[in-house]
Amino acid sequence: MEIRLKPQSCKAKGRRLQQWLCEQLSRISGIPWGPEDDKLIQSRPMAQRGVDAVLRGEAAVWFPFSFECKSGESFQLVASIEQARENAKIGRPWVIVHRRQAFAEPMVMMDWSTFENLLDKPKIT
């Protein structure tokens, strides 16, 4: 028998993943995060349109991406990519952060061209 989560529980899981992402971005960059207006890294409130991690100023330079968070056992790949593309800010590639119980840590998905642009390519002589 499949147990269905209530919408409130689903939103709480999503909110926790968004906050986890903001904590990780803060840890990597040293830029504080939080709900206060002066913070450069913020988790977008649930049910609001747009990227899930709001990055401003120095945080946007550190992380030149538009993040979409997905937490749950059922993952709709095509719908998630469409949403990430729709919410992505102009000139910023989309990145999906997906967490499910079967994996030890969240997974990151992006276009191949975005991945390739991240690489420091060695110069072969």
Which terms would index this structure?
single chain; 125 residues; alpha+beta; Trna Endonuclease, Chain: A, domain 1; three-stranded mixed beta sheet; two-stranded antiparallel sheet; 4 helices; globular
Fold and architecture overview:
With 125 residues, the chain is an alpha+beta fold. The N and C termini lie far apart (61 Å). The radius of gyration is 16 Å and the shape is globular. The chain is 37% helix and 17% strand. The mean pLDDT is 90. The protein has a 3-stranded mixed beta sheet. Strands 1-2 form a two-stranded antiparallel ribbon. It has one domain (7-118): Trna Endonuclease, Chain: A, domain 1, CATH 3.40.1350.
Main sheet: strands, sense, barrel:
3 strands, mixed
Number of strands: 5
Q: From the coordinates shown, what is the CATH architecture?
A: 3-Layer(aba) Sandwich
Mean pLDDT reading? 90
**Please, what is the oligomeric state?**
single chain
The third-level CATH topology is Trna Endonuclease, Chain: A, domain 1
Integer count of domains: 1
Blueprint of the fold:
Blueprint: H1 7-29, E1 41-43, E2 53-55, H2 58-62, E3 66-71, H3 77-87, E4 94-99, E5 107-109, H4 112-118
Parallel strand pairs: 3-4
Antiparallel strand pairs: 1-2, 4-5
